[in-house]
Amino acid sequence: MAFKRFQPLSVSRNLTLKNRLVLPPMASQTANTDGKVTEQTLAHYARLSRSGAGLLMVEYSFVTEDGRSEPHQLGAHDDNCLHGLTQLASLLKETGAVAGLQLTHCGGKTTPDVTPDMMGPSGITVPAYDRELTAPRAMEKADIDHWQRAFIEAAIRAETAGFDLVELHCAHGYGLNQWLSPLTNQRHDEYGGSLRNRARMLLEIVASIRLFSPDLTLMVRVPGQDGYPDGLSREDMAQVCEWLVEAGVALINVSSGIGGWKRPKDKRGEGYLVDDAAYLKQQLTVPVIGVGGIETPEYIEQALANQWLDLAAVGRFLLADPDHFRTTLLSEPTVQTA
User: Fold this and answer.
1) Can you tell me the distance from the alpha carbon of 130 to that of 229, in angstroms, rounded to the nearest whole number?
2) What is the mean pLDDT of residues 19-31?
3) Which end of the chain is less congested by CB atoms within 10 angstroms, N or C?
């Protein structure tokens, strides 16, 4: 029997994944206070790389100091990060995996002690499942230009460091999600109002990265929906993803929306966000990653066979024991004979 999770997948003209399993980006808090890779960071990812997953994503990395979410968050914000990021990309690729780096700006999803100059599209407090946040200031055109340059320069930095792929984090209530969501973007200029206008920030960043780094594979982590009344709907996200694909995005990674990454109270069971991925996969021509408590080979095979997703992101199960992940999900089952 040929198991689909072992099959390679071509995701762009110069990039093929060796299997259908993904290490999603998960914050390790191992960077130093300047956002630089440490020996602890390298040891952490060396351990995770033993999993054998085809795509190994490095955690959310801030693109500019005012985009930092946590004190020991990894950064891709200046050229002093290059040495450590190069070591990290090399370490991951030694396993035969594709190495990816997730880029983020927190927007208003941070605290004043970490990021004194908190900013967001409209100065609206970001709703969150797990905490009460402080209202950020509303961004001006100069701030928009600053964000865009920061994402573009960080993507170029990631490519220079040897990463095969860059993911823009537009989910979990972070900055780009705040631009997209009508809950947090209530501007009255060309970056607010209609869905197309609210997507303008993200689409302009994608277009600029494609212009400056045409060989770099781009992925976007999107919310399947916001999960809040009057927030982004599945239909909204299908349209946004179509625009992203037209702009040159090669993969779509489907996760949760404005409230954050924690499991919503009404979501239960393995693959609790996969229905959102399945909906988007029906609309799109590029590979789709599904996530949400995935951990068994039976579920992954079912999801692949039913075309709910093209790639399965396995987070906590892999983090707990990469060697057990490998033997459970990437080893052929032993056939019992009489």
Assistant:
1) 17
2) 97
3) C
Half-sphere exposure of 101 (CA within 13 A, CB side): 32
User: Looking at 25-135, which runs of residues are DSSP E strands?
Assistant: 55-62, 98-104, 119-120
And the tokens for 9?
A: 């997948």
Q: What residues have CB less than 8 Å from 75, skipping those under 6 apart?
A: 31, 34, 35, 36, 61, 62, 68, 81
pLDDT tens for each residue of 199-238: 999 999 999 999 999 999 999 999 999 988 999 999 999 9
pTM of the complete model: 0.96
Q: Which helix (H) or strand (E) holds 223?
A: strand 217-223
pLDDT bin (cut points 50, 70, 90) of residue 337 is: very low
Q: Backbone phi, then psi, for 29, in 5-degree steps?
A: 55, 40
Distance from C-alpha of 71 to C-alpha of 279, rounded to nearest angstrom:
36
| 252: enclosing H helix or E strand | strand 251-255
Q: Which amino acid is at 126?
A: V
User: Are 49 and 92 spatial neighbours (Cβ–Cβ below 8 Å)?
Assistant: yes
Strand partners, 222: 254
